[in-house]
Amino acid sequence: MDVTTGPAPGGAPDDGTSRPLRVCVVGASGKLGQHMVRHALERGYEVVGVCRERSVPKLAALADRITVVPGATDDASVIRRAVAGCDGVLTVLVPWGVQQYSSGTAQAVLDHADPGARLVFSCGWHVPRDDQDRYTWRFRAAVRVSTWLGRALRAVEIDDQVEACRRIFASDRRWTVVRASDLEEGESQGLPVWRRHVGDPVLASNLTRRTDFALFMVEALTDDGLVHEAPAIVGRLAPSARAAQPDAREPASSKGPPAAGRA
Predict the structure, then answer these.
(1) Are the beta carbons of 92 and 55 closer than 8 angstroms?
(2) What is the separation of C-alpha 206 from the centre of its chain, rounded to a whole number of angstroms?
(3) Cα–Cα distance between 116 and 146 in angstroms, integer?
(4) Any long-range contacts for 185-190 (C-beta under 8 Å, 24+ apart)?
(5) Core-most of 153, 193, 209, 219, by most CB within 10 Å?
(6) Sign of dihedral through CA atoms 181, 154, 57, 108?
(7) What are φ and ψ of residue 51, in 5° steps?
(8) Contacts of 47 (CB under 8 A, 6+ apart)
(9) What's the CA gap between 151 and 158, in Å, rounded?
(10) Please, are residues 230 and 259 in contact by the beta-carbon 8 Å criterion?
């Protein structure tokens, strides 16, 4: 088993001891969260999972291998307790309800994670990193409709996920925001391909396996090349990705495509 040990991803000095990384998964009970927990455990990491109290039973199969902290993920006291001593924090930014759940969760993690901890957040392509992101009219229309419906039904608050990422981008913490395409279930195809900007032809297939989205999140914990990046990802075996790298057979490095493709 490949076990990363020693100092925290943030670059803490080596004290001469060796230990597994301690990782907090915020939103551990969801589909993406459970995949991240499993990927982290496969690497020998110590895992702390945070989820709402009513969702704790979803983690029953993992309960004897992780520490579960029940509570709302936008509750600062819950997050403070969960992230204490963690080398990395993997956060699912879920836009539930209309009470600024995503931005509250992001702010709690930014405020209370240990200094130097690697912070990796999940969101969708709809969150722009800068004015170089390019969206089709269909994509923009779909986001507008989803935003309106979510607000009308008081079910989700997509704009608040954008606000959460705005706060992350403005932070001087060691963050990465992973922006995912549409997701599908299925066996892993390896690490997704990524580009800095939505609209790159490599991303055109707009489809990633959920387990591989989680894999990218976990890999980002130890990839300093992704600090202060907001990679937009697509499945490694998606047609648009294969067209860009037709000889791809093995999982790619989490460092992504060649430098020219990342500009």
Answers:
(1) no
(2) 17
(3) 36
(4) 185/209, 185/210, 185/211, 186/211, 187/211, 188/212, 188/215, 188/251, 189/235, 189/236, 189/237, 190/215, 190/236, 190/237, 190/250, 190/251, 190/252
(5) 193
(6) positive
(7) -160, 165
(8) 22, 23, 24, 25, 28, 37, 40, 41, 65, 66, 67
(9) 8
(10) no
What is the distance between the alpha carbons of residues 227 and 65, in angstroms, rounded to a whole number? 29
> Tens of pLDDT along the chain (263 residues)?
233 333 444 433 344 457 889 999 999 999 999 999 999 999 999 999 999 999 999 999 998 999 999 999 999 999 999 999 999 999 998 754 446 678 999 999 999 999 999 999 999 878 889 989 886 767 666 656 565 454 544 445 667 888 999 999 999 999 999 999 999 999 999 999 999 999 999 999 999 999 999 999 999 999 999 999 999 999 999 999 998 875 544 344 444 543 333 33
Q: Does residue 171 contact residue 112 with C-beta atoms inside 8 Å?
A: no
Which residue is listed with tokens 């093995």? 250
Q: What's the one-letter identity of residue 63?
A: A
Q: Please, what's the largest Cα pairwise distance for the chain?
A: 56
